[in-house]
DNA sequence: CACTCCCGCCAATTA
DNA sequence: TAATTGGCGGGAGTG
């Protein structure tokens, strides 16, 4: 009742948005006659204006009965009209009416308030962007129409457009099914491909011919890179519409909508003027281009544009041509889509139960990494920022291909990330699994990785995001890009925050941080870059390390936070997670820029991470450099690295387990020393899985730069170090994963033996359902994908190690494209290769952990990894051990 | 005046 | 045949 009252009130107040319709209905007044009749069927002329009456009306409207009401309404319409006109007498009405009317009229919602765009936003607000796969949301047109207070006709306008993008599908007569944005990127991709075939040339062509240059400059020609992929697509292709009859549907708003979207996707500038679109569409339609048609087309385009705007896919802009300014729309949605969807699909089936659709995509994403190993992908969720940047860039600097590429790449990643994330969420279910966040980095680039690993079957597996913290990830939305700027704020997208959307909605680039999402099946390694700053700071001597770490933690966090804030991340985040209920979530974190790894020196870089969306990726250090560092015996570095480890451990522990951090330090130091001796072996930190984490294990490389490790203030665990998380499921697929980081030094080890050992170990682990393993290497990065392991001298081929094809593929695909991520691919390759060293993780861990790992020699495996290092051996063993343990008893 | 685009008639489709 | 969809274009707000 309250509600109704309110609504009732609303009409009076100017503001209200409510039910326009209702108001109309009320509009029983004579004036309104023509309009809608409404009235309550029940009693057409009863006392309208009593409060009660209003309530009733509203109620009826709201209720499912609406339908009836409407029907009646129609019936009555004539009646009312006639009556009213005829019987002006209803005095009662009049009297009341006057007052009512006046207000009514006054408040009469302005035209804008009734706009289709606004209506669409309201409509969209009712459904989650990324609904859980499990629940099917059905939409009743009548219901929605009544709730939103509009005529059904309007709802059709919205729904038709949404349907064209597959956000909804029609299931029955008055029923639509809400799908959300899960398939949006896929749909867009399809449209893009189709668009290229159909319009690619056309666009280019037309633009030129028609002299439609934009002020920005002419559009470049587009290259139609892959048009070949598909045969022509019919519009219908997108399934929903499919083959339905051609008749009316041909002109359908749906088709127009798809075509319109295609134009954007094909356009280099991503800007399409209305008249061009109208012309193109008309031609296709074969309509003669007469003026009236044109006008009509434009009208329709406005309708579509309003909906797309609400979806955050486009925004209105003006293009100045010779003749003057013309209305146009700019695409602000995702630009790049994951590579071939088909390929993607390949992904290992093991894990996901999810509907396969997008999953594949996720796998692809592996990418970016940062520093050392970059095994993973980045998915960034930053909402729109990157996109934004990209877009801007495009518009303004169409010429710089390189940048564009990056941008695209970023966009793509983001997009992917979003998708992945969503998937994951779905998979995991509402449960907490969702996401996580991360945060991190102190300075410049911090990357946040929220990810979750979904394990099939294992609910725990997932990492949860911090609830409050950074990401407010609401299940529903993370819109990747989708949210339009403006809208986002409005709609509740919690998601954005992390991403850094600014308040305005503008995305800031946050520079950073792309989030990583991994498909359950996939593996990843995260590499954190070190930050220069951190490094320098952290560099403390080994001995100090422990202290340092502590300090670092304390100190850094705040900084980080601030930083973030500066970036704009509004997210509440603040306290990052450590506090989080660790159990569920794991957060990982991440480090900052990848770059840093390489250079400890280059402090100079300002934190502009934001500038480059791809920063995360970009971070990739040059392999060579990287390598050098690694190889270099620099003790200090090692120390640092180690120091980092401890931190990580602590953090993680805190986060996840709450174990004592204290213990770690000592252990760490200890280890560190050992490490120091060796040039650089990769060290890994193993994080014990906590309850929540049980599903995965983390290994962090000890080598990592300390900086990275630094914790975020909150303890966000930002791990700068590269770490790998592997879901158990994942393991199954891969017998081994390891990154051989040490390329050089290690080489001496007998490959064969080694390999054997390695394989053995891993295999075991793999068997164990529980633990996943990761190995990260410090790695070497080879430039590019090239398989050649120039880097590793030693690489015996181990059959055992191989990445799943999928991964490989995906990696390569991804990597190749993006310049930024160059490093990553390499990593993968290495992985594939049997790099010699499997891991050597030196495990450093807090006492607790140690227990697990415990040690060095203890391992049962006789096998010993043959590495040069005993330590390595130990590590491996420890790892195994850990795995075993975990498998048996999760803690 | 040019843009926008709401509104709702009414025909094509469906049930 | 009735109801549902949705094309279409007049013409009203806006700037």
UniProtKB/TrEMBL annotation:
Subcellular localization, as worded in the UniProt entry: Nucleus
Main location per the UniProt record: nucleus
Record has Transmembrane as a keyword: no
One GO term describing the cellular component: RNA polymerase II transcription regulator complex
Record carries keyword Kinase: no
InterPro entries to which the protein is assigned, alphabetical: E2F, E2F_WHTH_DNA-bd_dom, WH-like_DNA-bd_sf, WH_DNA-bd_sf
UniProt keyword list: Activator, Cell cycle, DNA-binding, Nucleus, Repressor, Transcription, Transcription regulation
Sequence ranges assigned to domain E2F/DP family winged-helix DNA-binding in this UniProt record: 111-180, 248-333
Gene Ontology biological process terms in this record: negative regulation of DNA-templated transcription; positive regulation of macromolecule metabolic process; positive regulation of nucleobase-containing compound metabolic process; sprouting angiogenesis
Annotated family: Belongs to the E2F/DP family.
Protein's name according to its UniProt entry: Transcription factor E2F7
Organism: Ptilonorhynchus violaceus
């Amino acid at each position: 009742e309250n509600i109704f009252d309110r609504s009732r009130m609303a009409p009076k107040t100017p503001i209200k948005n409510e039910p326009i319709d209702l108001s109309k209905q009320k509009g029983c007044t004579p004036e309104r006659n023509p309009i809608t009749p409404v009235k309550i069927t029940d009693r057409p002329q009863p006392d309208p204006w009593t409060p009660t009456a209003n309530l009733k009306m509203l109620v009826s409207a709201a209720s499912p009965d609406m339908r009836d009401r409407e029907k009646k309404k129609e019936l009555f319409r004539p009646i009312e009209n006639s009556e009213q006109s005829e019987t002006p007498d209803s005095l009662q009405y009049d009297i009341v009416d006057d007052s009512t009317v006046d207000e009514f009229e006054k408040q009469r919602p302005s035209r804008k308030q009734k706009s289709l765009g606004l209506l669409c936003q309201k409509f969209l607000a009712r459904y989650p962007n990324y609904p859980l796969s499990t629940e099917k949301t059905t939409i009743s047109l009548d219901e929605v129409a009544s709730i939103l207070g509009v005529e059904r006709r309007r709802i059709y306008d919205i729904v038709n457009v949404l349907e064209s993008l597959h956000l909804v599908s029609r299931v029955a007569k008055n029923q639509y099914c809400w799908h959300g944005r899960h398939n949006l990127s896929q749909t867009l991709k399809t449209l893009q491909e189709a668009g290229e075939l159909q319009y690619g040339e056309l666009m280019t062509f037309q633009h030129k011919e028609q002299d439609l240059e934009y002020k920005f400059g002419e559009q470049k020609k587009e290259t139609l890179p892959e048009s070949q992929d598909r045969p022509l697509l019919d519009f219908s292709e997108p399934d929903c519409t499919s083959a339905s009859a051609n008749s009316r549907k041909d002109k359908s708003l749906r088709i127009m909508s798809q075509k319109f979207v295609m134009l954007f996707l094909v356009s280099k500038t991503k800007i399409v003027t209305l008249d061009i679109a109208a012309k193109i569409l008309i031609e296709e339609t074969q309509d003669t281009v007469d003026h009236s048609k044109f006008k009509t087309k434009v009208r329709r385009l406005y309708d579509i544009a309003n909906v797309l705007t609400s979806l955050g896919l486009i925004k209105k802009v003006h293009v100045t041509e010779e003749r003057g300014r013309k209305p146009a729309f700019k695409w602000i949605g995702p630009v790049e889509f994951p590579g071939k969807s088909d390929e993607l699909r390949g992904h290992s089936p093991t894990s996901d139960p999810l509907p396969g659709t997008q999953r594949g995509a996720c796998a692809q994403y592996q990418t970016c990494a940062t520093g050392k190993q970059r095994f993973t992908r980045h998915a960034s969720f930053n909402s729109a920022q990157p996109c934004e940047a990209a877009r801007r860039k495009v518009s303004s600097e169409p010429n710089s291909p390189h940048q564009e590429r990056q941008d695209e790449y970023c966009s793509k990643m983001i997009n992917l990330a979003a998708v992945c994330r969503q998937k994951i969420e779905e998979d995991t279910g509402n449960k907490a699994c969702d996401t996580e966040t991360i945060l991190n980095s102190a300075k410049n680039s911090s990357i946040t990785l929220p990810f979750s690993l979904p394990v099939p079957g294992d609910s725990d597996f997932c990492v949860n995001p911090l609830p409050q913290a950074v990401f407010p990830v609401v299940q529903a939305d993370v819109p990747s890009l989708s949210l339009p700027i403006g809208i986002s704020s409005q709609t509740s997208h919690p998601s954005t925050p992390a991403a850094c959307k600014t308040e305005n909605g503008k995305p800031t680039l946050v520079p950073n941080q792309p989030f990583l999402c991994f498909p359950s099946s996939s593996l990843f390694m995260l590499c954190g870059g070190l930050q220069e700053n951190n490094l320098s700071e952290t560099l403390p001597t080994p001995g100090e390390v422990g202290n340092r770490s502590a300090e670092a933690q304390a100190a850094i966090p705040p900084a980080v936070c601030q930083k973030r804030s500066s970036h704009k991340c509004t997210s509440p985040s603040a306290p990052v997670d450590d506090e989080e209920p660790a159990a569920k979530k794991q957060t990982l974190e991440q480090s900052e820029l990848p770059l840093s790894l390489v250079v400890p020196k280059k402090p100079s870089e300002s934190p502009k991470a934001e500038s480059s969306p791809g920063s995360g990726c970009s971070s990739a250090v040059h392999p060579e450099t990287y390598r050098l560092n690694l190889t270099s015996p620099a003790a200090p570095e090692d120390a640092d690295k180690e120091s980092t480890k401890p931190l990580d451990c602590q953090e993680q522990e805190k986060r996840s387990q709450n174990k004592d951090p204290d213990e770690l330090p000592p252990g760490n130091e200890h280890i560190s020393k050992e490490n120091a001796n060796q040039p650089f072996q990769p060290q890994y930190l193993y994080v014990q899985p906590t309850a929540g984490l049980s599903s995965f294990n983390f290994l962090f490389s000890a080598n990592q730069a300390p900086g990275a490790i630094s914790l975020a203030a909150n303890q966000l665990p930002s791990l700068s170090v590269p770490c790998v998380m592997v879901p158990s499921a994942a393991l199954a697929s891969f017998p081994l994963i390891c990154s051989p980081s040490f390329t050089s030094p290690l080489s001496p080890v007998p490959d064969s033996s080694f390999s054997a050992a390695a394989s053995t170990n891993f295999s075991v682990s793999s068997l164990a359902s529980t633990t996943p393993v990761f190995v990260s290497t410090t790695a070497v990065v080879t430039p590019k994908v090239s398989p050649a392991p120039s880097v590793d001298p030693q690489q015996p081929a181990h059959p055992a190690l191989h990445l799943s094809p999928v991964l490989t593929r995906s990696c390569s695909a991804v990597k190749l494209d993006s310049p930024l991520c160059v490093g990553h691919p390499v990593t993968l390759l290495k992985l594939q290769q049997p790099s010699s060293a499997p891991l050597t993780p030196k495990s450093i861990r807090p006492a607790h952990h140690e227990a697990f790992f415990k040690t060095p020699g203890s391992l049962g495996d006789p096998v010993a990894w043959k590495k040069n290092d005993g330590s390595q051996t130990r590590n491996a063993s420890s790892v195994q051990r850990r795995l075993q343990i975990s498998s048996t008893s999760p803690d």
